[in-house]
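Regression test case RT-17, inverse folding.

Input:
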């Protein structure tokens, strides 16, 4: 008789070999969202003041130590205050990632069924699409789109890979949660892996988009969502999509700084 494995482990074992490391990355954690376990305040007063001020200098100076120094001065601190950030420019990249992720729930609230506008019809998949666009808009509003390839380079440094990968995963989890996905089964991991891959691809594409109001990026997003069958429904728990997308998923995650 063949051994019996838990449903989540069976899902991972059925996945293509080069997809398994990504699924295993979070398989040791219980699938829950920070709504039930609130995330502690990620930045103290001085840190938040310096980093938020420094972010305003990124469009002109990039994700650099110089931007951190300018941010410290703007916030009323000495240049030496940048020693608060031993990670250097990555601290500035991470600040943008964390604050944009945590801010999604405040910027985008879906109404209940009775008040839901027609444009939001289509269930969880449609909401996921709207959340991805809102997160991409955060890059535009912060003025960092033109500098985001620099950020990807910083995230790809070996010492920054674990935190970069974690933030991408947390963003995917946040989007599924805000979209109303409450299922906890073997597909929990694959849905988040697929959305992480889609978001990574679209965010990279956005850095090269010259169209008005990033309309080409929106069209690119729709094509990627269609490929992983998330528009109009949930990702299939059979993992059939994974066999087709595994190679692309690994490449896209690597572009985000994940060594797999």
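Golden output:
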């Amino acid at each position: 008789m063949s051994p019996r494995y838990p449903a989540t482990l069976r899902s991972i074992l059925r996945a293509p070999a080069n997809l398994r490391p990504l699924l295993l990355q979070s398989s040791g954690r219980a699938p829950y969202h920070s709504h039930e376990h609130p995330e502690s305040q990620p930045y103290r007063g001085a840190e938040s003041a310096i980093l938020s001020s420094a972010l305003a200098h990124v469009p002109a100076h990039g994700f650099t130590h110089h931007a951190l120094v300018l941010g410290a001065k703007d916030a009323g601190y000495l240049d030496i205050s940048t020693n608060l950030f031993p990670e250097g420019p990555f601290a500035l990249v991470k600040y943008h990632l964390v604050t944009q992720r945590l801010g999604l729930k405040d910027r985008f609230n879906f109404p209940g069924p009775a008040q839901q506008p027609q444009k939001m019809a289509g269930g969880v998949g449609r909401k996921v699409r709207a959340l991805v666009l809102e997160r991409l808009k955060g890059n535009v509003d912060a003025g960092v789109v033109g500098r985001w390839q620099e950020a990807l380079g910083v995230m790809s440094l070996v010492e920054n890979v674990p935190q970069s990968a974690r933030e991408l995963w947390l963003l995917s989890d946040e989007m599924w949660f805000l979209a109303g996905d409450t299922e906890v089964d073997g597909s929990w991991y694959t849905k988040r892996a697929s959305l992480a891959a889609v978001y990574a691809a679209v965010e990279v594409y956005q850095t090269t988009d010259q169209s008005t109001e990033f309309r080409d990026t929106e069209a690119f997003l729709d094509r990627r969502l269609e490929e992983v069958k998330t528009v109009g429904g949930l990702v299939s728990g059979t993992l059939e999509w994974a066999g087709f997308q595994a190679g692309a998923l690994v490449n896209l995650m690597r572009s985000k700084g994940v060594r797999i």
